Amino acid sequence: MRRAGFVTIAAAVLLVVGATAALAGQINGVGHTPLNAALGFNAKSDLSGELNYNSDPNGPNAGFNAHCSGYTFYNVRTSSDGYPAVNVRANCTDQDGVTVHLRANFVDRGEPGTNDSVCMQWFYSPGVVFIWDHGTILNGNIQFHGQDGVWMADV
Predict the structure, then answer these.
(1) DSSP conformation class of 88
(2) Measured between alpha carbons, how far is 80 from 27 in angstroms, rounded to an integer?
(3) Spatial separation of the C-alpha atoms in residues 104 and 82, rounded to whole Å
(4) Shortest CA distance to 61 belongs to which of 87, 33, 28, 89?
(5) Using an 8 Å Cβ cutoff, are 138 and 30 in contact?
(6) What are phi and psi of 129, to 5 degrees?
(7) Is residue 46 within 8 Å of residue 20, measured between CB atoms?
(8) Is residue 37 a contact partner of residue 53, using CB atoms and an 8 Å limit?
(9) Rounded to whole angstroms, how far apart are CA atoms 34 and 13?
(10) Which residues contact 23 (CB under 8 A, 6 or more apart)?
(11) Closest CA to 108 of 74, 132, 133, 140
């Protein structure tokens, strides 16, 4: 009798874990930002993922590079024009090993990615944004994978 109870509980736990994984979403992308920084990232609803941002070596922010391992915030919403958008926040490390903070919004406007957009704010202390990189992504693609890999507007 005890064994049957344990098996039932274990099965229920596996179903909950499986259902949670099915509901988990993620967004990922590569390309160049409007300020021509090289960008590559993946962000998951469980706050895991990576982001690399390398400024244009000939641009106004030359020399700034950042790497993020994990996120502190992940929120899915719908953009004002009806596409899946994800807001993230992260504490990252710049090229000198100094902590830098990121607030970003990524919008997936479908394939082939020519209308996808980013809005990224980099800051060392709250309220003091030193890079605001926003607009349509260049030479790249952002892809949102929602519940079961499908954005709700697609069903």
Answers:
(1) E
(2) 18
(3) 18
(4) 33
(5) no
(6) -80, 125
(7) no
(8) yes
(9) 45
(10) 45, 147
(11) 140
